[in-house]
């Protein structure tokens, strides 16, 4: 006899789940790189730069939650709401890389 969990697992199609996670990760990556570039151009230092990263991560997650997920993240990704708002370690490093790059380009001769 199948349970409710088995029925839910049968409705998830693997290639669609992989595609959804790839798109979500790409959106988060581009958002963190753009936020890093903005932080560098604005000349933000220390906690203000990380505050911008936090705000940009929350903003992009809320936009995906409302627009892409239609307030039901469990339908589109494995992990649900927690995975939707998780910035990911690689995105933090991308943010720092872009932040220091653009800060160095714009403010090197100040």
TrEMBL record:
One of the GO BP terms on file: protein folding in endoplasmic reticulum
InterPro entries found in the cross-reference section: Emc6 (IPR008504), EMC6-like (IPR029008)
Main location: endoplasmic reticulum
Topology of the protein relative to the lipid bilayer: Multi-pass membrane protein
Membrane spanning residue stretches: 47-67, 92-109
Localization, UniProt: Endoplasmic reticulum membrane
Keywords in alphabetical order: Endoplasmic reticulum, Membrane, Transmembrane, Transmembrane helix
A single Gene Ontology CC term: EMC complex
Pfam families per the UniProt record, alphabetical: EMC6
The family this protein is said to belong to: Belongs to the EMC6 family.
Protein name, UniProt field: ER membrane protein complex subunit 6
Organism from which the protein derives: Heterobasidion irregulare (strain TC 32-1)
């Amino acid at each position: 006899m199948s349970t409710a969990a088995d029925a839910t697992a049968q409705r998830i199609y693997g290639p669609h789940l992989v595609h959804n996670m790839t798109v979500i990760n790409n959106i988060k990556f581009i958002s963190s790189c753009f936020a890093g570039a903005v932080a560098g151009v604005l000349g933000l230092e220390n906690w203000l730069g990380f505050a911008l990263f936090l705000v940009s991560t929350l903003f992009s997650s809320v936009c995906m939650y409302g627009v892409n997920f239609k307030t039901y993240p469990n339908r589109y990704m494995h992990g649900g709401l927690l995975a939707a708002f998780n910035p990911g370690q690689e995105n933090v490093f991308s943010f720092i890389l872009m932040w220091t790059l653009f800060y160095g380009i714009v403010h090197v001769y100040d």
